């Protein structure tokens, strides 16, 4: 399975968000590097916890910036969280699909960051 490689052109232009995104790439790779079930469980927990923290931080930033697309963006976060919860539940009931997680991370890390999160960065620059 291909690894996630951080690139500077993924930056949205906000240091907090960019630092967290880069860390998410690292945590996602740790999941795919996990060698056994115990390690996988630990890495998944770490990833899921960090995703939730990251979303909360991003949502706080959007509200501080009076970001006009806040509600839609919040909805996108909720959808991703729901998908992660399903994957987490699958892990707990021994029906875990690493491929499903990879697809979700790939779609999210690349699509959501490059499109939706970038709009937050653009809005922040305009307001300066
Ligand atoms: Fe986001």
UniProtKB/TrEMBL annotation:
User: What molecular function does GO assign, one term?
Assistant: metal ion binding
Protein's UniProt keywords contain Transport: yes
- One Pfam family in the UniProt entry: Hemerythrin
Which keywords does the record carry?
Iron, Metal-binding, Oxygen transport, Transport
Write down the PROSITE patterns for this protein, in alphabetical order.
Answer: HEMERYTHRINS
Q: Where is the Hemerythrin-like domain?
A: 13-122
The coiled-coil segments of this chain are none
The residues that cross the membrane are: none
- Give the family this protein belongs to, as stated in its UniProt record: Belongs to the hemerythrin family.
Name of the protein in question: Hemerythrin-like domain-containing protein
